Amino acid sequence: MIKFFVLYVLLFCSMIVSAQQRISVSSPNGKLKFSLKIEPEKITYDVDYKKCPIVTNSLLGFSFDNGDFGHNIKTGKVRRKSIDETYELIIGKVSVARNYCNEVIIPLQEKSVPTRLVNLIVRAFNDGVAFRYEFPEQEGWDSYVMYDEKTQFNLNGNPMTLLMYLPGYVNTHENVYNRVKYDDIAGKKLIEMPVTFQFEDNTCVSITEAAIRDYAGMYLMKEKDKLVGKLSPHPGQEKIKVEISTFPHRTPWRVISIAERVGALLESNILTSLNEPCAIEDTSWIKPCRTTFTWWNGNVVPDSTFSPGNNFDTNKYYIDFAARNGLDAHGIYGYAETPWYYDENFNFGHSGPDADVTKPIPCLDMPRIAEYAKSKGVGIHLWVNWRPLYDKLDEAFTLYEKWGVKGLMVDFMDRNDQEMICIQEDILKCAAKHRLFIQFHGSSKPSGLVRTYPNEFTREGALNYEVCKWDNAVNADHDISIPFTRMLAGATDYHLGGFRALPRSQFKIQYVNPYVMSTRCHMMAMYVVLENHLTSLCDTPMAYEGQPGFEVLRTVPGTWDEIRVPLAKINEYVTVARRNGSDWWVGTLNNSTARTLQLKLDFLDEGDYEATIYTDAADVDENANHLNKEVRKVIRTDVLNLPLAMDGGSVLHITKLQ
Predict the structure, then answer these.
(1) Which helix (H) or strand (E) element contains residue 96?
(2) The Glycosyl-hydrolase 97 catalytic domain covers which part of the protein (predicted)?
(3) Domain containing 166: what range?
């Protein structure tokens, strides 16, 4: 009887084991492992780092109009390969990146009718794992209506979390960041990605998505102690998230970046590695741009013989400023609530049904402005609301190319549903045909698409310095959250350039000629710390010319060859070193606590260098625009003291001596 019982138990256990199937893939260095578990009723995955669980027992699957997918599944032949390649980025935080990972493709097919087949593709990098779903061509299923993607991210333990809550699917993608324990994340609230976690052993994790194309963007939401992916629904309803009419089709990559130090998250190129190669044949015209943006300062002009506004003379004043200081372009948006083009609504955010982005308002004299700018060697950077632009996309871009426009700020998109994601790619494609760069404002986060369409220079998706015109929410404590969250997704449009700083205790809100509440050095360092291929100078010519530090804004590059993050502590400080050619630029941001950091220069090669060092002056608590400037010789074994004031920062420009 005992023998029979033992045999029964062994048989029962073997049946359970046989009912489960496990498939795994590890990173090239063996530290990261993705494991898939297929059971009769569900499919789940785990992610381990250095043999410690990071993500556990997290569900995969879909809900379609013709039934759920994710149970009663069998696997086909698993395919594996290693990928090790380098690729060039036309613009980016590096010029040459390495795509180095192990890949597994797992066919998942239903055992019973309708026997749908979905391939799960997993890539394990040394700095993260990513997975996506592929819908191959197959008999009996060549389209779908998706109600939900059931992807979960169940974090192990109770890590510290840095996240942004959003009020709903239609939103500006702007809010302050909260730092809470994982267990204390609010339930039933949309969470913007990237979201960053730090475990007790300092392992850092970031969750976001890559290659969002013909699909809905994803948020996260805490449900029953698990983070669940939430896709943006089609406009006007809540049920349908994605509709696809032909196969093959692929979802975006779900990306879990993992590193033993937080600075490595900033250095990672995993998002661009997960995107397709460049789709633009001739990229010779794609170069970073340095532009004015007069909306921020209120289109201010000095005492003059002309009236400020939508006219030739106001724009001539800024074009002359751009020409004097080597800027590439002058930004034109309009004046007050009147766009530069015809719009009966007189409202930037809500264009009228007859708004026409091919018809400049008569008082502007746009052809004359374009001709004058061309004579001064200055391009034009146009603001437009996305809706009237999309109505006349090719016609408008043909006209803008004729005017000599370099690029556009496309604004008030405020959605990331499938329709809007497709609209954005249509804009990028058409803009490339007319040699125009695109700055998506009022938009969702980037997803590494800059590799495929390098004319996507930057995106907003962050609460930024425009808020200083009406609120005090954007300060150094908010700024320091951005590198550890939003910037992990890519270039960040942040309305940089405020050169009239007040100490935080003296800050006052002004819509015209606004102030900022961090030191001059902090504001300058933002240009180095943040990735942004459109260098914006939002303040007035009077705020810049003759001012200490203006030379940094005039010369800091807009694209880079290499990045290092030698110093970083979440929400306290960060130092980012970026190389362009043989020059290094090093920016440090501090939060609201004064401190001194020791910066090792071991990222330099051997040889002698000259460093121009900008640091906070001793009296910045009274005059936040004061700074110290020092020029000295340095070598790679040097260690520099960086005194950082409350709300302060520092900038180094290091050049190789011959």
Answers:
(1) strand 96-110
(2) 295-462
(3) 21-273
Helix/strand/coil (H/E/C) assignment for every residue in 183-233:
HHCCECCEEEEEEEEECCCCCEEEEEEECCCCCCCEEEEEECCEEEEEECC
In a domain, 151, yes or no: yes
> Which of 222, 245, 273 is where one domain is finished?
273
Which of 335-344, 466-475, 571-580 comes out lowest in average pLDDT? 335-344
Is the distance from CB of 119 to CB of 107 less than 8 angstroms? yes
Coil, strand or helix: which one is 321? Answer: helix
Tokens representing 353 are 């049904």
CB atoms within 10 A of CB 372: 18
Helix axes 393-403, 366-375, angle to 10 degrees: 40
Distance of CA 394 to the CA centre of its chain: 27
When pLDDT is cut at 50, 70 and 90, the band that residue 392 belongs to is very high
Q: Locate tokens 């026409």: which residue?
A: 356
Which element (helix H / strand E) includes 590?
strand 583-590
Q: Is the dihedral of CA 350, 354, 358, 364 positive or negative?
A: negative
* pTM, 2 dp: 0.95
- Which CATH number goes with the domain that contains 594? 3.20.20.70
- Choose among 164, 94, 162, 173: nearest CA to 494: 173
The β-bridge partners of 456 are 438
What crossing angle do the helices spanning 312-324 and 366-375 adopt, rounded to 10°? Answer: 20
- The reply to whether 222 falls in a domain is yes
Q: Which helix (H) or strand (E) holds 550?
A: helix 550-555
Exposure of 325 by Cβ count < 10 A (0-12 exposed, 13-18 middle, 19+ buried)? middle
Structure-token pair, residue 28? 């090239």
- Picking from 273, 293, 319, the residue at the C-terminal end of a domain is 273
Answer whether residue 494 is part of any domain. Answer: no
Domain count within the chain: 2
Residue 268 placed within a domain: yes
Give tens-digit pLDDT for 471-510.
999 999 999 999 999 999 999 999 999 999 999 999 999 9
